[in-house]
Amino acid sequence: MSRKQRVVVVGNGMVGHHFVEQITSLIKPNTGVEVTVLSGEERLAYDRVHLSEFFTGKTANDLALTNEQIYTDWQVRFFTNAKVTDINRVKQQVTTSGGVTFDYDKLVLATGSFPFVPPIPGKDREHCLVYRTITDLDAIKHSASSSKVGVVIGGGLLGLEAANALKQLGLETHVVEFAPQLMGVQVDNGGGRLLKDKITALGVQVHTSMATEEIVDGDRCRYKMCFKGGKTLETDLILFSAGIRPYDNLAREFDLAVGERGGIVINNHCQTSDQNIYAIGECALWNNFIFGLVAPGYAMAKIAAKHILFNNSDDAFFGADMSTKLKLMGVEVGSIGDAHARAPGARSYVFDDQLAGVYKKVVTNQAGTRLIGAVLVGDTSDYDNLLQYHLNDLALNAAPESLIFPLAPPPDTVSITDLPADAVICSCHQVTKHTIEQAVLSGANDLVDVQAITKACTGCGSCENRVNCIIEHSLAITKAQPQQLSDEVLIPVTELA
Fold first, then answer.
1. Which domain holds residue 469?
2. Are residues 149 and 233 in the same domain?
3. What share of the chain is helix, strand, coil (3-state, %, to 5)?
4. 121 assigned to some structural domain
5. What does the record give as its pathway (predicted)?
C-alpha cells in the first residue's frame, strides 16, 4: 500500500484556512492525502476582516473560522504555536521553533503579512503597538485602560479601523498620515477630502502631510511625537498602521525567488521557484503584484489545492479585481477599478454634494462606453450596480453621469437578466450568478439556504443585496417557467460549494 501524499500548510490565517477547506472538500475518501496545518499563533484561523468587532463585544470564539473539532472531523492534523523556522528543500522537511520536524511532498506557504513600523527613533517604547492579531488587540485594550490619548500612524484602510478601535475604547483619537490625504490607494483627492471631513466630524482629529521624526517623553502625556517642521503631538498610546509587508522571510532564508520589494514569486498555479512549494495570499507576489484583500487570496487557495491534487493546469490565477466596499466609523466608502483615472484616455464624471456629504465619481474609457472605475464616499448605494458594469465590461446604455447624478434621468441600472451567467456576484468566494440560480433550482428558498450551499455572502457581505435580487428573480422564474433560468445542466447541490 502506497503512503499518503503529505501536504503541509504553513500559516493558518483566513487564506491558509480557506486552502484547508478547499483541499479537504476535494479529497475523495481513501485517496491518500494527509493535510497538516502549522499555525504560528496560539489559536486556529479567525476572521481578520471583522477584527474591529472585537472592540464592540465579539470574543475570539465569535471571530473563529474553525476549531479543533472541525479539523479533527476533516482528518486534518493541526499544531498551534508552531512557527516554522527551517525548510530543508532537499529532504522536503520543515522544522518549527520547538524543534519538531514534518515531512512534506507539497508545502503551502500561507504566512500572510506583518505590519510595517517606520524606523522612527522611540518606536520600541512600551505603549507603541501594532494592530494585526487578536493578541495585538488584547495589548491595545490593556494599554488603553491607562491612557487618555491615542494616535494612529497611518491613514489607510487599516489605520482608520485602528482609529475606530481607539475611539471605541474611549480615547481622544488622532490619525497621522504622511500623504496629503486618507486612503490614497482606494480613493481620489475629492473622496479623500470628504472622508477627512466626515471622520473629523465624528471626533477623530486627522493630521495629513505629517512625517514623524521622533518619539520622546511627553510633558502632559506619556509621549510626545515630533514632526518634520517642528510641530508636536502628545499621546499616551501609539498604534502603527502604516501598511503591511509580505511575510516572506522563509523564502529569503531558504533560497526561493522573492521580488525586489518583497513577496514570494509565484506562477499562475501559485507555485514558487520550487515546484513542490506553493505560496498564497499576502505573502505571494504574482506578476510583480501583491494582493492585500482576502478574495484574491481565496482564489489562490482554490487554484493551489486543485493543482496539488490533480496537477490541473486549466485552473490558473490571472490576477483579481481589487474593488472594495466598506464602512469606516459609519462612513460608507466604495472603490472600483481605476479609481484614480490613470488609464490612457480615461474620462471622469464627478458629483460632489458638500452639504449632504456625498462624493461620487465614475471613470470611463475615452469613448464613454465602458465603466473602468469609480469612487463613492458617504453613499455607496450605487456600488453593486457600478461594480457589475465594471466586472462584466457591460456597455453603458445611457450617459455616464446618469449613473451617479441624482438630478439626471433615472440611473441606468444593470438588471439581473442583463448579467451573463458567469458574472461573479460574490468576489470573496467567486460565486457566479449561475451558481446562485442553480442553488435555487436545487431547493434553496432564501439567503440562508443559498449561503449554506454556495458560501455566497459569507465573506465581507457586500454582495448581499445583489444575491437577494438573484434569489427573488430565480424563485419567480421557477414558479413560472423553470427552464428559462439556465440552459445548462442542473448541478447537484453537493457540488455547488
1. 418-486
2. yes
3. 30, 25, 45
4. no
5. Nitrogen metabolism; nitrate reduction (assimilation)
